[in-house]
């Protein structure tokens, strides 16, 4: 086992996951509204999507990557519209009273929602195809064993980040006042809507 590949996978996974973007804010908001486990499950959805893209980029699967990149405009439109809708919902949401138990299927919804939004962001694979050569990887020139070690490290790094982030946010949830939660929802919702609008405007700009 090549531990350097695992370590590099962890680093790349963290590089992709750590920056605070709209998906991070959505996971934070989920942790605040539903609890740490809801946020972690949502983060696992993002980690799954990112790991899929890392697998495609590392193995140099040109058929898959080519297909995804050829459909990047429709995917960016979908992602932008979803972010706008989700951002508006977060902006308008108010802290709910704690209920006994979790709504049926809520964890599945958390996971599937974030997985779908992250998959609809083809910029992830572009980022990875640029980043991996910087670590000395030859895209498509690695064995399946090396790919498994790198991707395993990547998944570990990404999952670890979401556990730490959402776990930390969820642990202070009970100490945050309803007024502060409303403010967080307003700021997060506004930012997410702005990112969605930017995705759509930038796409129109590049097309026309």
What does the model show?
With 208 residues, the chain is an all-alpha fold. The protein has one domain. 80% of the residues lie in helices and 0% in strands. The chain contains 9 helices and no strands. α2 packs across α8, α3 packs parallel to α6 and α3 crosses α7. The longest helix is centred in the C-terminal third of the chain and has 30 residues.
Short description:
The protein has 208 residues and is mainly α. Helix content is 80%, strand content 0%.
Topology:
Elements: H1 3-17, H2 22-34, H3 36-59, H4 62-70, H5 72-92, H6 106-119, H7 123-134, H8 144-171, H9 178-207
Helix pairs in contact: 1-8, 2-3, 2-8, 2-9, 3-6, 3-7, 3-8, 5-9
